Amino acid sequence: MKIMFQISLFWLAVAMVHPIVAQTNSQNEPQNYVVLTKKVEQLTPILLSAEALKKEDGAHFGAFKVIICGKNIGDVTDLSKMEPHLEKASKLGVELIACGFSLKKFKVDADKVPEELSTVDNGILYNLQMQKMGYKSLGL
C-alpha cells in the first residue's frame, strides 16, 4: 500500500511539473510568423509589426514570412509601390512571397515580380503548411 501511495505521489508530481517544463521549452524556441495579405498597402503595418516583434522576441525571433495573394497581386510588379517595402523587409530579414496561383489567375507576368520576392505555387496552402510547422499565422 505504501508503494502504491509513493507511485501515485510520483506521478502527481510529474503531472504538475510537466506543464512548467513544456512552457519553459516553448519560450526558448524561435518564434516564427507568417502573414497572408491581399494588399501591398498592408505591407507597411505588417513590417512595422515584424520590427516590433523582432525587438520583443529578441534572440527568439525566428522567421517572418509575408505571402501576397489575391486580385491585387499585380501590385507586386509596381516598383514605385514595392521599393520601400523591399528595403524594409530586407533590413528586417522578412521574406516576401508572391502567390503563384494568384499570378496565373490574374494574368500577371511572373518575370516582372521583383527578384527579392520568392514565389510559391499556392499561397494559401503554403500558409497552412507553415501553420503545421508551428508558425503563428495572421490573414488580412
List strands and helices in order, with pairings.
Blueprint (H helix, E strand, L loop, with lengths): L1 H27 L2 E7 L5 H15 L3 E8 L10 H14 L2 E5 H6 L12 E3 L2 H10 L3 E4 L1
Parallel strand pairs: 1-2, 1-5, 2-3, 3-4
Helix pairs in contact: 2-3
Keywords: Signal
Protein name: Sulfur reduction protein DsrE
Gross CATH architecture: 3-Layer(aba) Sandwich
| Structure classification | alpha/beta
Average of pLDDT:
86
Q: Shape, please?
A: globular
CA radius of gyration? 21 Å
Count of alpha and pi helical runs: 5
The number of distinct β-strands equals 5
User: Approximately what portion of the residues adopt beta-strand conformation?
Assistant: 15-25%
CATH fold descriptor: Hypothetical Protein Ychn, Chain: A
Largest sheet entry = 5 strands, parallel
Task: Provide the domain count.
Answer: 1
Percent in helix: 40-55%
The SSE order reads HEHEHEHEHE
Low-pLDDT regions? 5-14, 17-25
By CATH, the superfamily comes out as DsrEFH-like
For the biggest β-sheet, the strand order reads 4-3-2-1-5
Please write the CATH class name.
Alpha Beta
Distance between the termini: 60 Å
Description:
- The chain is α/β, with parallel strands linked by helices.
- The protein has one domain (30-139): Hypothetical Protein Ychn, Chain: A (3-Layer(aba) Sandwich).
- The protein has helices at residues 2-28, 43-57, 79-92, 100-105, 123-132, and strands spanning 31-37, 61-68, 95-99, 118-120, 136-139.
- α2 (43-57) packs parallel to α3.
- The chain is globular, with a radius of gyration of 21 Å.
